Backbone:
C-alpha cells in the first residue's frame, strides 16, 4: 500500500527557503531499516515518519545516514502536514511520542509552536581539533556542550557567516553536531548561528530547531531577554522565535508544503 509523502520547507513562510524535511505516513510495523532507506532516498537533512496512536502520533526522525533522537524542523513539518491535511483541527494540540519523550505542537495564527526540552550548555574546554576543523580565526568567547552537541560562541556575525569548516576533520571529534553563534549585528534578530553535523551525514543543516534548545537558554541568559528572534545563517536561511521556559523551550516557526505524493516502494 502506498505511503503518503510530503516535502515541507520548515522555518520559512516562502518555498525554497528554510529547512526542507520529508514527512512520511508509515505503518506501526514499519522496519527501521526501511525508514533509513527512505531517508537516504529523500536525501534531505531529515525525514520524519509518523503513525497514529490513540493519544497522538509516534514520530521518528532519520537523516540520510542515521536515526536521531531530536529534530525540530521535521517536527514542525510534521505538525504543519497534520494541520494542512486536516488530520488535526487548528484548535487541537499535536502530541508526538518520540525518543525524546512527549513533544507537542500548536497552531497559532499561521505559526506553529513546538514545546521542546531545554538543553542549556555546560561550559567545557573545546577540543583543539574542533576549533581547528571549524577554521576559526579567533578565540571563542564561550564553548559548551549540551550532552550531544557543542556550542561555540564567537565575536561578530561576520565570523559566523564566513566559516568554511573542514568536514572530514570535524568527524574526528565525538559529537552529534556543533553550533557556532554570535550576537546579531542588526536590530531584526537577537542572535545568528550555523549548525554542522557531518557525524550524521549532514555537513550543514539549513535550520536546526533542536540546536535552539541549547542556543535559546544560552542567549536568554546572556541578553537578559525572555523571548528571542533567531536567524540561522545557512545559504537557505531561516527564522525562529525562541522562548525558554524553565526546563522547556518554546520554538515558533512557519512552514510551507512544496511537494505531495505517494511513496510506492
Residues:
Amino acid at each position: 500500500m502506498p505511503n503518503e509523502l510530503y516535502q515541507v520547507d520548515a522555518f520559512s513562510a516562502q518555498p525554497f527557503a528554510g529547512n526542507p524535511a520529508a514527512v512520511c505516513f508509515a505503518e506501526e510495523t514499519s522496519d527501521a531499516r526501511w525508514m533509513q532507506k527512505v531517508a537516504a532516498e529523500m536525501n534531505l537533512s531529515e525525514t520524519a515518519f509518523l503513525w497514529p496512536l490513540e493519544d497522538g502520533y509516534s514520530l521518528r526522525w532519520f537523516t540520510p545516514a542515521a536515526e536521531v533522537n531530536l529534530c525540530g524542523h521535521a517536527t514542525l513539518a510534521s505538525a504543519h502536514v497534520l494541520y494542512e491535511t486536516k488530520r488535526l483541527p487548528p484548535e487541537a494540540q499535536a502530541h508526538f511520542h518520540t525518543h525524546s519523550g512527549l513533544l507537542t505542537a500548536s497552531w497559532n495564527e499561521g505559526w506553529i509552536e513546538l514545546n521542546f526540552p531545554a538543553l542549556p550548555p555546560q561550559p567545557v574546554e573545546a577540543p583543539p581539533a574542533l576549533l581547528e576543523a571549524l577554521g576559526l580565526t579567533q578565540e571563542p568567547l564561550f564553548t559548551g556542550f549540551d550532552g550531544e552537541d557543542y556550542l561555540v560562541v564567537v565575536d561578530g556575525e561576520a565570523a559566523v557567516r564566513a566559516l568554511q569548516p573542514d568536514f572530514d576533520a570535524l568527524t574526528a571529534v565525538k559529537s552529534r553536531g556543533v553550533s557556532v553563534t554570535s550576537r546579531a549585528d542588526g536590530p531584526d534578530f537577537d542572535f545568528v548561528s550555523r549548525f554542522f553535523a557531518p557525524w550524521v551525514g549532514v555537513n550543514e543543516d539549513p535550520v536546526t530547531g533542536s540546536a535552539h534548545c541549547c542556543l535559546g537558554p544560552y542567549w536568554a541568559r546572556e541578553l537578559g531577554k525572555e523571548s528571542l528572534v533567531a536567524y540561522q545563517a545557512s545559504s537557505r536561511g531561516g527564522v525562529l522565535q525562541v522562548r525558554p521556559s524553565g526546563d522547556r523551550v518554546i520554538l515558533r516557526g512557519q512552514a510551507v508544503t512544496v511537494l505531495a505524493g505517494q511513496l510506492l516502494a
About this structure: The CA atoms of residues 84 and 127 lie 44 Å apart.
